[in-house]
Design goal:
20% helix, 6-stranded antiparallel β-barrel, 38% strand, 3 helices, alpha+beta
């Protein structure tokens, strides 16, 4: 692996950079699995609300079906050098049951309101349990920046993290 001269960032900086990327980036790859059909991976737009990642997909899609059958998922941002991998628990919300603030933030970020579509959509909330982040080989060791839902820079657990999704949209 080519390191391109990178040096290891302190954990607090890795966490800060990861949270910034979650708050500003648009696309993620979501990996789900079904007990009978195996793995499924799809690129989706996402919204970070400071505690969880929100995505949207058709309510009858393979992604929604898989999450209902097996809520453990993985999510990755698309950069292969500045890597962010998130593992967590997913839950589907029918478009009429998604929290209004989340749906409005999603609409503001993407200019699209799935609730206004003729077809029904499901919002998928992924609550992270583990997050790994690294830039090149120097950061492979120490790449876990969240463990058991707690950021490793000694900040509050993800369930108590109140950074506003609206400030990043």
């Amino acid at each position: 692996m080519e390191t391109t001269g990178t040096t290891r960032r302190p954990t607090a900086e890795q966490v800060r950079d990861t949270r910034r990327r979650l708050g500003t980036e648009r696309d993620a790859w979501l990996s789900t699995s079904h007990p009978d059909h195996g793995p499924h991976q799809v690129p989706l737009w996402f919204l970070w609300d400071g505690r969880a990642v929100w995505l949207c997909t058709g309510s009858t899609s393979a992604t929604a079906r898989n999450v209902r059958a097996e809520p453990r998922v993985r999510l990755s941002l698309p950069d292969t050098f500045d890597v962010v991998l998130l593992q967590g628990e997913a839950e589907c919300f029918p478009d009429e049951e998604v929290p209004a603030a989340t749906a409005e933030a999603f609409t503001a970020k993407f200019g699209w309101d799935p609730r206004a579509e003729e077809d029904s959509f499901a919002y998928v909330r992924v609550t992270p349990r583990t997050v790994r982040a690294w830039r090149g080989e120097p950061e492979l060791r120490g790449r876990v920046v969240m463990r058991d839902g707690v950021w490793l820079d000694q900040e509050a657990p993800v369930e108590r993290d109140r950074s506003a999704a609206h400030s990043s949209t």
